[in-house]
């Protein structure tokens, strides 16, 4: 396979790169003195400074300018060397690429020759396989003819044996039929007995279910009465606590009146303020719970649940339980979750110390669209 080499010249790019850097160096050296010129508005000050300078200072400045010019020239020379090195690297990379392309072309030629040899070998193998296949087919045909002959003989023997077996089976079938008829008669009698027993058992089960239903209704009635009694007791206890609180407040007011007539107005104001703060706390609790309450779908009309709430000293939720069920477990659960989500009620700490204990336990009644 013929190889093609392309000669790449790098002299012209290298010369152009060096000339470009030399041109930049010459331009920077020519413009360098003007780069140190001060703005025009300082000309008078410069003139004054020049008159005050000595010859030694001027010589030092000139030497510093020459040093900066030499440094700039050195930097430009280094840039030119770097550009030359980069051009040489590019040339080396190009030579490597051409070598790789030549190697790939040679590999492709070798692969083509190998493919031609493989195709010839495959064709030879196909011819050999076709010959062997023909031989196998002939042998298979002979084997099939021999197997067909043997199968015909075996089929004749099977037919004879089958005929004898059919006669034996016919006799056995007649015997089984007689036995089956006798068994069927006995099963019919047994089925009639089982049906009678099943009817008797169904009657007893219906009576038991009716008794169980009546007991469940009685139990439900007892539970409803117990819940109603518990509700009445809670309401009575709540009323008693309020009356006790009012009594204590009245006693405190009376004691304050006895101790100091002048402090009566202040005591009344404090009691009114405490009551207002307590009412405000309850309203805040209701608002927080209403915002957290997600009413489940398909709630029957008139559903109502009462949740008993017990708080800690800082308003944290100690316990929440269903004091009175609505009869709908999803509705009761949503009310409990609303209280748990809205807790804690830190506003309890803002109440007066004498009132906080009274509002650490209270009941919330949940009805669709309203919380009391």
Structure, described:
The protein is α+β, with helices and mostly antiparallel strands and 372 residues long. Helices cover 77% and strands 6% of the residues. The protein is built from 6 helices and 4 strands; from the N terminus they run ααααββααββ. The protein has a 4-stranded antiparallel sheet with strand order 2-1-3-4, sandwiched between helices.
Summarize the structure.
The protein is of the alpha+beta class and 372 residues long. The chain has helices at residues 11-35, 43-52, 55-259, 264-292, 329-342, 353-356; strands at 305-311, 317-324, 361-367, 370-371.
Task: Please give a handful of descriptors for the protein shown.
372 residues, 77% helix, alpha+beta, 4-stranded antiparallel beta sheet
Helicity range: over 70%
Q: Structural class of the secondary elements?
A: alpha+beta
Q: Order of helices and strands, N to C?
A: HHHHEEHHEE
Relative strand content = 5-15%
Instruction: Summarize the biggest pleated sheet.
Output: 4 strands, antiparallel
The backbone outline, from C-alpha atoms, is flat
Low-confidence stretches: 41-53, 260-269
Q: What's the mean pLDDT score?
A: 80
User: How many strand elements?
Assistant: 4
- Output the number of helix runs: 6
Main sheet: strand order: 2-1-3-4
For the termini, the CA-CA separation is: 101 Å
Instruction: State Rg.
Output: 57 Å
């Amino acid at each position: 396979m013929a190889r093609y080499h392309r000669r790449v010249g790098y002299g012209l790019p290298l010369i152009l790169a060096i000339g470009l850097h030399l041109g930049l160096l010459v331009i920077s050296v020519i413009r360098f003195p003007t780069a140190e010129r001060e703005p025009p508005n300082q000309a008078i000050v410069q003139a004054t400074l020049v008159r005050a300078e000595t010859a030694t200072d001027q010589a030092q400045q000139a030497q510093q300018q020459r040093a900066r010019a030499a440094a700039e020239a050195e930097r430009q020379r280094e840039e030119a060397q770097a550009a030359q090195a980069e051009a040489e690297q590019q040339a080396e990379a190009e030579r490597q690429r051409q070598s790789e392309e030549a190697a790939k072309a040679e590999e492709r030629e070798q692969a083509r020759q190998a493919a031609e040899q493989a195709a010839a070998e495959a064709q030879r193998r196909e011819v050999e396989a076709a010959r062997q296949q023909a031989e196998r087919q002939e042998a298979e045909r002979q084997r099939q003819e021999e197997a067909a002959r043997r199968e015909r003989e075996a089929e004749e023997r099977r037919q004879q044996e089958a005929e004898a077996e059919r006669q034996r089976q016919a006799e056995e079938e007649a015997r089984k039929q007689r036995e089956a008829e006798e068994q069927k008669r006995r099963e019919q009698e047994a089925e009639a007995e089982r049906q009678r027993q099943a009817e008797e058992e169904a009657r007893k089960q219906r009576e038991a279910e009716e008794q169980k239903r009546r007991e469940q209704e009685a139990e439900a009635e007892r539970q409803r009465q117990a819940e109603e009694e518990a509700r009445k007791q809670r309401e009575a206890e709540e009323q008693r606590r309020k009356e006790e609180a009012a009594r204590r407040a009245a006693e405190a007011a009376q004691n304050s009146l006895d101790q100091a007539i002048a402090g009566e107005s202040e005591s009344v104001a404090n009691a009114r303020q405490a009551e207002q703060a307590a009412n405000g706390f309850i309203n805040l609790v209701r608002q927080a719970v209403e915002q957290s309450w997600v009413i489940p779908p398909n709630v029957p009309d008139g559903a109502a649940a009462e949740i008993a709430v017990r708080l800690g000293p800082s308003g944290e939720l100690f316990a929440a339980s269903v004091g009175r069920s609505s009869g709908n477990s999803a509705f009761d659960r949503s009310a409990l979750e609303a209280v748990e989500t809205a807790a804690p009620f830190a506003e309890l700490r803002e109440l007066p110390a004498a009132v906080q204990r009274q509002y650490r336990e209270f009941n919330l009644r949940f009805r669709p669209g309203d919380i009391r």
